[in-house]
Amino acid sequence: MTIIRVTAVALSAFLATPVVVAGSPTRTAATPDMPCPAVKPAVPPPAGASPPPVGAADRAVGGAALATTGLAIPVGAPTAPAVTATSWLVADLDSGAVLGGCGPHELRTPASVQKMLLAAALMPRLDPAQMVEVTRADLQDLDPASSLMGVVEGGRYSIESLWLGLLLKSGNDAANVLARVGGAAAGRPGGVQAMNNEAHRLRANQTHAATPSGLDGPGQYTSAYDLALIARATYAREDFRRYIATRVAQIAGDAGTPGFAITHDNTLLDHYPGTLGGKTGFTDLARQTYVGVAERNGRRLAVTLLGAETAPLGSLGEAGALLDWGFALSPGASVGRLVTPGEKTDDHAAAAGEGEHHGQAGDRSLLSFPAVLGLGAAAALAVVLLAAPRWRRAMRQAADRTAQSERSAADPSPSEP
Predict the structure, then answer these.
(1) pLDDT at 248 over 90
(2) Active site residue 344
(3) Stretch 169-198: mean pLDDT, rounded?
(4) Annotated catalytic residue, options 115, 161, 315, 334
(5) How far apart are the first and last CA of the chain?
(6) CB–CB of 287/87 below 8 Å?
(7) Exposure check for the chain: N or C terminus, fewer CB within 10 A?
(8) Angle of CA points 301, 208, 234, to nearest 5°
(9) Catalytic residue among 87, 147, 161, 170
(10) Rounded to two decimals, what is the model's pTM?
(11) Catalytic residue among 87, 112, 213, 223
């Protein structure tokens, strides 16, 4: 009986132990973010308004390791290069693996790399052979000193020519025309709304467009992670890949409008081996920005960076250094992944691991395997303990019957007449 009582006490203690539920991680002590290797710019950038904070659920998109304002690189990976960019990311464009990043979900001003979102939103809906006429409204709000393709009021150009002007010369004029045509009855605002709808579809949660060109606008932000999602969407299109890799294009004129040639502006084409194309950007507020893709040994890596300075390397030099670092990593190395539109994810559960719970992620949780196994063993033990007294009585009765039978066999009773 002593053994039974001890076992019962142990069972009671086990059943009183809290059960850990899979999918609802216990809160752990916060660890400080690892600083990103950085180069202090020779000339401090102008001060700007601080961007709004990013929510925990949005930080968790792509993996918990990316929910940092600092550095995220694989365990055992070589040190990432020091750059002036305030945020960056390197990802495998085909597998979607994120190889590393610095503040990957932090809000930053995009400048002209925002034009890639315009392409992602409107290329599927615009006929490249369509001819469109440039209006005064397309040009009247543009600084003549800004990046322009060179279209003129009243001129007629094909949609394909406008895409080339957008991507090769970073034409703000081309962006306005494309957004107006793509916005249909809603005009340019409709084109901008299509950009924001596309960002939402791609799950680029930190991205909001206020202008089609990337010129600074109220509340216009993106992130290094979001730019990688946008790059993956655009590079999946054959027409985009062809446009972005074009070095020189001849823009045909129309009745009374002279044609002209444009050349690709400031990318790593012909300067970094394997470059498939890239898009630069700059405003006083955004500083230098860049999105590019390069291929080496069958791997296509995308690099995105925001907030870089001209010296010592500039955005192009820093992009090359980050690509070199990414290509040197093992193909299986990663700290997260690029999500895809419409996929089922458990980002809220990942955010709960940071100490916050969102929605009903906990309601979908199941008991962990060790807990189920332990409860099963406890139940079996309880059944054994409850059945033990009856089992011992049955054994004694069987033994008594056997002894009685043996005595009867040794001293048989008289035979019947």
Answers:
(1) yes
(2) no
(3) 98
(4) 115
(5) 53
(6) no
(7) C
(8) 35
(9) 170
(10) 0.77
(11) 112
